[in-house]
What we know:
The protein contains 17 helices and 14 strands. It has helices at residues 38-50, 83-92, 106-115, 133-136, 158-161, 188-193, 199-204, 210-220, 235-240, 262-276, 294-297, 315-322, 358-373, 375-388, 393-408, 420-429, 439-461, and strands spanning 63-68, 95-100, 122-124, 140-141, 165-166, 169-170, 173-178, 183-187, 228-230, 248-251, 254-257, 301-306, 326-330, 345-352. A hairpin with a 2-residue loop joins strand 10 and strand 11 (254-257). Helix 1 crosses helix 2 (83-92), helix 2 (83-92) packs across helix 13 and helix 16 runs antiparallel to helix 17.
Amino acid sequence: MRKARYFISALLIVSMPASLLSCSKKDEQPKYSxxxxxxxxxxxxxxxxxxxxxxxxxxxxxxxxxxSDWDINPDSTGKNVPTDLAVFQERYGGTxxxxxxxxxxRYEKLAEYINSDEGIDFFYGGNLxxxxxxxxxxxxxxxxxxxxxxxxxxxxxxxxxxxxxxxxKHYMSGVQATGDKVGVIYNKKTVAEAGLEDPADLYxxxxxxxxxxxDMLEQYVDPSKQRYGIDGWWFEFGLMNTIxxxxxxxxxxxxxxxxxDPAMERVQNWMYGLSQKGYVAIGSEDLGxxxxxxxxxxxxxxxxxxxxxxxxxxxxxxxxxxxxxAFFVPMPKDPKADEYYIPTGFEAYMFVTGGSNPEGVAxxxxxxxxxxxxxxxxxxxxxxxxxxxxxxxxxxxxxxSMQELAEENPVIDISKGISDDCGELLDDSLRKxxxxxxxxxxxxxxxxxxxxxxxxxxxxxxxxxVG
Length: 467
């Protein structure tokens, strides 16, 4: 098994938004008729039935209740039935009942449903704001009675899940580390017309690093000609994560600040330099604080770092924004890092306290793991990207390459979720260098405060096992 470096804080505090937006079963997403081809369903059924990885009979109660701001079922993005859901349907007779809410009011609605005994079964943990406070407050329940992390299905992600242990119990069911959290979106036509080398070609040659990234910006940016550099809300932390060390990590069961590490100083000083040279578009005099992703499609902006979810929709939707020649690559490599680190996501799910069907959720998550590790079934899942989203094979290959980077050297950054106060301080302060404030000024202003926040959380954790 590959040696993984997991920098996941097990003392992440849940943020309970005060949004008053309403959400109820009446607000559930409309049903969409898009359906898998019969031949695809037959192949999924065959793979799931013949594999020894999936065990047990069909569920007596196959319905599991999902509360989220996004639907697992087909929706208006043009998504078909996801392959893992099809496996769940075919192997266990399962269905997912969707309870719609907004991102902002999801915890408020979850609390309401728990209090009403609705029996919501599971909740997304990949935003990394659900643990451990949700476990401490008994919003979420341990998963150990339902998921065997030592089994062939889960053993590859056991080490990752062991990073999310509270009082000896697993509360996060992490399906996989993901490489699609933040990538550099650009337009191949824009790059070619500017006489620049394609970032994908640089990546293939092992030359896509901070230096190449900055060199392209230097050659391209010219606001007088409406040619802008870096746009979007994701680039600061996306670049920061390439050093392989998040702002806060856990060592021997205690939170430790890394903001004084030389690598953090180095990346912050580099981002300050990008700002001083006029390469940062967002917040500039010309563009203000409104992100303009459509400028990628219009050939006005060079780089738009964002999650690849921007392409998880019908081609007519993503090409309208980014253009028919849109593409993406990983964040550029830190040339002084020991490995190629990229921002790493965590596809994880929480079992809700009082859920009506935890056994069903466990089987659904087994199906997700099966889809990742069964070669034939994974190929069907990959096929959805080309058929449903209009991806080229080149796009799929790049996504898979980013996934490999994430699995080899995961950098899962939860700095915005340590606690409300600490998270807000870090989120704001760690962006300032890219907005024109020298790093030494920011560091002197926050390091003692961050240490005090971490000391308090460490003290309050007592002797709890935090993984």
